[in-house]
Design brief:
By secondary structure, the chain is mainly beta. A hairpin with a 2-residue loop joins strand 19 and strand 20. It is 14% helix and 45% strand. The protein folds into 4 domains: 102 residues, Immunoglobulin-like, CATH 2.60.40; 97 residues, OB fold (Dihydrolipoamide Acetyltransferase, E2P) (Beta Barrel), CATH 2.40.50; 95 residues, Nucleic acid-binding proteins (OB fold (Dihydrolipoamide Acetyltransferase, E2P)); 86 residues, Nucleic acid-binding proteins (OB fold (Dihydrolipoamide Acetyltransferase, E2P), Beta Barrel), CATH 2.40.50. It is built from 4 helices and 28 strands.
Amino acid sequence: MKKVFVILLMVALCASLFAGAGLKNAAAFVKANYDKSSKANPAPRTTADFEVYDNISIKGVNYSITWSTDTEYVTVEPKANHVVLINIDEAAPEEIVYNLIAVVTDPTDGASETIKMPKTLPQGSSDPSMEEIVFTAYKLGDGEAMAKEVRLAGIIKDIPTAYSAQYGNVTVNIQVMALADNIIQCYRLSGDGCESLKVGDMITVEGKIKNYKGTIEFDKPVLVGKGDIPDQKATVDAAFLLGDGEAMKGLQVIVGTIESIPSAYSAQYGNITVNIVPTGDTRIVQAYRLKGGEGLKVGDTITIVGNIKNYKGTIEFDKDCRYVGAEYYRSVKTLLKAYQLEDGKALEGARIVKGKIVAIPSAYSKDYGNITVNIQVGELDDLIIQCYRLTGGEDLKVGDEITVVGVIKNYKGTIEFDKGCTYTK
């Protein structure tokens, strides 16, 4: 009897060890597949969302995997067919080292193994629009200042203090985009060209914004230059942080000057490959198989829209990227923001878009003094915006290019300027 008991005990022990071995094998498999850390790279960067699976089969046994992280900036979202999306926050406020946590469970006895895989979430590529910067500035309390320097372009509306040759500065008030009610003062603006500034000039200014006794102002900023010179550092920096094979999330837009043309325009395929230097930068981004472009040449400045990736060390817009004129850069940025709106939501404040009328859903009404038109920027037919009950417009027709100002919202899936929007032709 004692011998039988020992044999049974040994069988039970072996079964237990076998079950434990199965769980350990499953855990080892998960670690091998999802933990890319090494001595040289202890916490690999995660610059884009990625997918994992919620179960694994080892010798006919299905082990479940429960995923989590230890940071609010990386979340877990179950999808169909046992896929789990690891959703990273591309606008994280700072670089964060976090753990991707997998709990592997044995269905036979409920035993589990926990695997912690260290990874790094880069600081986000937050790229607020100029309107968003202005609205943030106007929410400052008296004496408060924005944490970082910002860049804004605007039209000089008046000059409270004329240029001083003694101090080399001038104070001007600028209107950013369509925000006539949110004037920004540039107090003691300095830099090359300040001595010749006049009302009506479009200028680009950089510095820290504060609320000084109710006046929202740049505090002794620098004149970047005349015209609209965008700050594209957030987008370009994020692009150049991509690892080989990684891509940025969603459509991106960059305005820049063509530096070279690696592949000439092909009439057969209707595309061209160009290298551009983003405005305000020195790095090169390639636009691979850019649609159209028969007339493009070195030195042209264009706005490119598409998906950005790292292909074997080359930072590039992927094939089928598109382009429009440099003057449409701000309009495209606004449309990309608008197309992220949820149903019923609106962008804060007045926005501005320049485009060509491609359709007139509702003809001009003399009774109401308005018209509804759809406008398109260049060939970007997937970013159509409707101008609902646009004020005036009796003389408008398909093909006209207009600049529209108003509140942009998502109305049951239609991206539109709300009624009461206005235009110039």
